[in-house]
Design a protein that fits this description.
The complex is a heterodimer of chains A (238) and B (85). Chain A has 238 residues and is an alpha+beta fold. Among the domains of chain A are: 43 residues; 68 residues, Thrombin, subunit H, CATH 2.40.10. Helix content of chain A is 32%, strand content 32%. Chain A has a 6-stranded antiparallel β-barrel. In chain A, a hairpin with a 2-residue loop joins strand 7 and strand 8. Chain A is globular, with a radius of gyration of 22 Å. The model of chain A has no long low-confidence stretch (mean pLDDT 81). Chain B is built from 4 helices and no strands. In chain B, helix 1 runs antiparallel to helix 2. The chains are: A alpha+beta (238), B mainly alpha (85). The interface between A and B is medium-sized, with 29 and 26 residues.
């Protein structure tokens, strides 16, 4: 083995050991990464409010209209569900798809106790995912619409159970036997909490297939989420 | 070149934290091409996975998709560079 080959081999070995160490310490490193990222996201949150100054007049008017609608919606919702949200914790979304390749949400939880497995809601009635990890005031959220993520839910009207698979960006898919009682605009809910998961937007049947393809969509736009509520699993059970 | 390399870390961090994944991927790819033996890019890809990944079947249960992709791209670019120069 020549000197050049030896040094090359050494570099590969050192690099391999370094990568191995990264994998071994990945749990600890995750906390470190969140520790480093959290101040940056906090600063980003502050600046995101001021970025609207740089926009054109038309976009400002549109933003104003959108915010007015949001206020009306939130006022209506808070008057209906005033008591329901006592134990919920509001969290602001700092990372949403398409920023993350994996389609996860990162939310800022602001000193409120949040645990892995807690449910993430929009308003008080729409459930969009579960908390996967909590670090330094931020929580990583698995969305039900995450590509490849499967969960069991039921159709509210007929009570049919179905396995829903995420397709990304708030879209989901399910397969049901031919002739099952499901229609477009049916609502799919979580069987334990009766919270809304998605709405059926298409039911397609093929002559050669004994199953129907059901397409579902979350009632909220995941790409424009601003605030969510995080609630413990137990508090949502009926 | 040394300071440019340091500056690239800041750029990459900002891009990962605040920009869409495809933009971060493009910037990382450009840095792999621009800098010679940009090992740091693989480290940043690993950090990206730690920040955002969750184990889902879509990526064969792996939580290190970006890391492995970056590793393959790195090896490919370095091989091409070696043959060209």
């Amino acid at each position: 083995m020549s000197l050049h080959q030896k040094s090359k081999f050494r570099i590969v070995v050192v690099f391999g050991i370094f990568i191995g160490l990264l994998f071994l310490l990945s749990n600890m490193l995750q906390s470190v990464v969140f520790f480093v990222a959290s101040p940056a996201w906090k600063i980003g949150e502050i600046f995101s409010g001021y970025s609207v100054i740089l926009h054109s007049k038309d976009s400002l008017l549109q933003e104003n209209k959108r915010l007015k609608e949001q206020i009306t919606f939130l006022q209506a919702e808070s008057s209906i569900h005033n008591n329901a949200d006592n134990d919920s914790s509001k969290a602001s979304v700092v990372v949403r798809p398409p920023q993350s390749l994996y389609g996860t949400l990162i939310v800022r939880i602001k000193d409120i106790p949040v645990e892995k497995g807690d449910y993430v809601l929009v308003g008080s009635n729409i459930m969009i995912g579960m908390v996967d990890d909590v670090s330094f005031g931020f929580a990583k959220v698995i969305l039900f619409s995450l590509p490849g993520y499967t969960q069991n839910f039921v159709v509210q009207r007929s009570g049919i159970p179905l396995v829903v698979e995420g397709r990304g960006s708030g879209n989901m898919r399910a397969r049901l036997p031919y002739g099952a009682d499901i229609e477009v605009h049916d609502v799919v809910v979580d069987p334990l909490s009766s919270r809304i998961i998605a709405e059926v937007i298409d039911v397609s049947e093929e002559d050669t297939d004994t199953f129907m393809n059901v397409l579902l969509k979350t009632p909220v736009n995941i790409l424009e989420l601003q605030d969510v509520y995080i609630r413990a699993q137990e508090s949502l059970k009926i | 070149m040394f300071f440019l390399r340091i500056f690239s870390y800041i750029v990459l961090s900002v891009v990962i934290l605040f920009f869409p994944w495809w933009f971060a991927g493009t910037v990382l790819f450009l840095f792999f091409c621009f800098f010679k033996k940009y090992y740091e890019g693989i480290f940043f890809a690993f950090m990206y996975d730690l920040l955002f990944s969750v184990p889902v079947t879509h990526f064969w249960g792996s939580v290190h998709v970006v890391f492995f992709t970056a590793l393959i791209v790195f090896v490919f670019i370095e091989n091409v560079r070696k043959r060209l120069l």
